[in-house]
Predict the structure.
Amino acid sequence: MTRIVTVGAAQLGPISRSESRQQVVRRLLELMHQAKAAGCDLIVYPELALTTFFPRWYMEDQAEIDLFFEREMPGAATRPLFDEAAKLGIGFCLGYAELIEESGRTNRFNATILVDKQARAVGKYRKVHLPGHAEHEPWRAFQHLEKRYFEIGNLGFPAYRVFDGIFGMLICNDRRWPEAYRVLGLQGAEMILLGYNTPVHNPPSPEHDNLANFHNHLVMQSGAYQNGSWVVGVAKCGKEEGVEQIAGSAIIAPSGEIAAAAVTQGDELIVARCDLDLTRSYKTTIFNFAQHRVPEAYRPIVERKGAVPPP
Ligand code: CDT
């Protein structure tokens, strides 16, 4: 059997702080048209695709911070994306900063939505693994204040039946955590969509800087193979407001092999024709979870009698 989903990974170059939503949406629409011309069913945009990566700045004025958030999806500025997607008959996945009133309070999440070919929102994910720090750390060349500006996602890791398959989403730092892929894998995820903004330089561990691209592919290729799933990893990259961010967008097959890879540091669409049924030979053999996983052995080590206590 073949269930083909043709996917476009829409890598974005830098977005400056002064760039308006309308200007960014024009860039997203240009990539959407390219994706349609290339026969894509679905286009995937990066994390926080509508603005510059604002957690690099320490800000105290909540009104100033909230300018980077969307209060509605679609809102006035993002409506053209939905309208054009419906007209073209193409789905999309979009990362954005979400401001929402829930349970009588204001919540802010690093979120992503999945939209089908009729422009209906059919899935949502809110980032769980927020990297960085919550307080101003002036010693850093730039900040990474996701723990200050966002709450931990409260939706878990949901998988959705859409595009004739099972789809999940992760956001940036989530891709470094095997359990994030595995929770999706346990729900049968066949394609995992993820966007990222990854600075080359991580101030607490500069000794890792020259490995940033290696680690990016390492974790996405492992996540794909170990769960028998496609992974679509999409960067916002290049020098944004003085901070160099990695590129390396890639569409990765369930074998862990890279099926398509970006070659620039800017706006670039890469496309792969992804057979969701390629996931079968992994999910039914080496990674047949029902047959081979041993959940009782995965209890925290401290619960096991005679186990070496953690340091
Ligand atoms: N956006 C995001 O999650 N970036 C992180 C940077 C880690 S270093 C603080 C990432 O994992 O790529």
Observations:
- The longest helix spans residues 21-37.
- The chain has a mean pLDDT of 96.
